[in-house]
Specification:
alpha/beta, Spore Coat Polysaccharide Biosynthesis Protein SpsA, Chain A, UDP N-Acetylglucosamine Acyltransferase, domain 1, 2 domains, 23-stranded parallel β-sheet, seven-stranded mixed β-sheet, 8 helices, about 15% helix, elongated, binds uridine-diphosphate-N-acetylglucosamine, binds calcium ion
Length: about 450
């Protein structure tokens, strides 16, 4: 097979976004529009993947560094044909060039593959629309062969009735494409070098023109305004939700879930409303996620229950844990099986072994906690001395009384008990009770101060 180049057009201004940010960097499902296109492009293993950028200066190449093989500036922007031309010096004639668009984010690899099946032809992705207004129309002869694409602004009344439209996505032999682009003229309604004019050139040269259609209309929807961006976001979220439902995941309301990345689920997973999943998240068998939880780059093992309003970020959670409501697991948290983390408990860069519990109002940072430990309400690890972070180690079966401060570096021995309200600054022995608070005393006959008479 010929080698493949992918050119992604992303130079447009995006005037209707009313934003200083280039249009293609606005996010859909948590990632720039053009980021989606680049991910699909990378699945096709192209030799060259080139983003043609323009408006917004270096913002586009900076934001996408490493995701494309090349970035070329199109300045000024003289049309889609002119845009493609900017990338041509990077490409070998003996290859196939596929053209995608930075503002058409949801194109899928399965739809693109058929465009590569006739490498010596010009291959167009077209679509039949009830309301074709605004699109270039596919003009066919009486035998049904494509003869040209005509832009709406240049079309006759009769041509405007054609419902087969140009999605803009196409694949062509690179050598031929180069010749056609060099011959483009801008004598049309918009004074632009139209990429679409290559179709009539191919036909005149006897090069066959093939067409294919996308599997879903949403794959070729473009974004020109915040309204279209919001609409496409909802549409894509619904596609992803339907995919989960088809796998057997229970979604209390498939219209109220947001997946910004990749969510994988085991069997009998249940997700309540308003949850957001970011990056790569795995929920294993029978995991239940309560309403309005946010889970980012984390894996939750089987049988665990995340109660509502929990935030879990770069964490690993074991089997049969109970997390939340209102729990916060920060990066570097690793919970073993059957751990309980309750309301207003924050855990960062800490490992907690099986069956330990921190059920109320705690901060556990830079800690190693053993098994079956009970961390009382209000316990704080003081891990930061103002300059450096230090570790707290708590042995198996320790019992930390409520409102304890563990001033790190410090180790609580196995089976140790810490009396409530203690400030622990030195290591505590195994199996003993340690406490650091002053003894309770009563001052007999003590009187509250009184206001002085004026
Ligand atoms: C284009 C097609 C039209 C098709 C429609 C599908 C042409 C001439 N027309 O029209 O047949 O139905 O897309 O949406 O190709 N761009 C650049 N540099 C430029 C001009 C455009 O990078 O100089 C990029 C834009 O950022 C955008 C894409 O190319 O991503 C399409 O440009 P746009 O002006 O929106 O094309 P349309 O007029 O919609
Ligand atoms: Ca245009």
């Amino acid at each position: 097979m010929n080698s493949l180049n992918i050119i992604i057009l992303a130079a447009g201004k995006g005037t209707r976004m009313h934003s200083d940010k280039p249009k293609v960097l606005h996010a859909l499902a948590g990632r720039p529009l053009v980021g989606h296109v680049l991910e699909t492009a990378s699945m096709m293993s192209p030799g060259v993947s080139c983003v043609v950028y323009g408006h917004g200066g270096e913002q586009v190449p900076l934001a996408l560094a490493g995701l494309a093989s090349d970035f070329v500036l199109q300045e000024p922007q003289l049309g889609t044909g002119h845009a493609v031309q900017q990338a041509m010096p990077l490409l070998d004639d003996d290859s196939t060039t596929l053209i995608l668009y930075g503002d058409v984010p949801l194109i899928q690899a399965a739809t693109l593959h058929p465009l590569l099946m006739h490498p010596s032809a010009l291959n167009l992705l077209t679509l039949h629309l009830e309301h074709p207004t605004g699109y270039g129309r596919i003009v066919r002869d009486d035998d049904g062969h494509v003869v040209a694409i005509v832009e709406e602004k240049d079309a006759t009344t009769e041509q405007r009735r054609i419902r087969e439209v140009n999605t803009g996505i196409l694949a062509a032999p690179t050598g031929l494409l180069r010749g056609w682009l060099n011959a483009l003229k801008n004598n049309n309604a918009q004074g632009e070098y139209y990429l679409t004019d290559i179709v009539a050139m191919a036909v005149a040269q006897g090069v066959s023109v093939h067409t294919a259609q996308p599997a879903h209309e949403w794959e070729v929807l473009g974004v020109n305004s915040k309204q279209q961006l919001a609409d496409l976001e909802r549409l894509w979220q619904r596609v992803q939700a339907n995919h989960l439902l088809a796998q057997g995941v229970t979604l209390v309301d498939p219209g109220r879930i947001d997946i910004r990345g990749k969510l994988t689920c085991g069997r009998d997973v249940e997700i309540d409303i308003g949850c957001i999943f970011e990056g790569n998240v795995h929920l294993d068998h029978r995991v239940r996620v309560g309403a309005y939880s946010v889970i980012r780059e984390s894996s939750i093992n089987s049988g665990t229950h995340i109660a509502p309003f929990s935030l879990i970020d770069h964490a690993e959670v074991g089997n049969d844990c109970v997390i939340g409501p209102y729990a916060r697991l920060r990066p570097g948290t690793k919970l073993h099986n059957e751990v309980h983390v309750g309301n207003f408990v924050e855990i960062k860069n800490s490992e907690i072994a099986a069956q330990s519990k921190a059920n109320h109002l705690s901060y556990i940072g830079d800690s190693t906690v053993g098994s079956r430990v009970n961390i009382g309400a209000g316990t704080i690890t003081c891990n930061y001395d103002g300059a450096n972070k230090h570790r707290t180690v708590i042995g198996d079966d320790a019992f930390i009384g409520s409102d304890t401060q563990l001033v790190a570096p410090v180790t609580v021995g196995r089976g140790a008990t810490i009396g409530a309200g203690s400030t622990i600054t030195r290591d505590t022995p195994e199996h003993e009770l340690t406490l650091s608070r002053s003894k309770q005393l009563t001052i007999a006959g003590w009187q509250r101060p009184k206001k002085k008479p004026r």
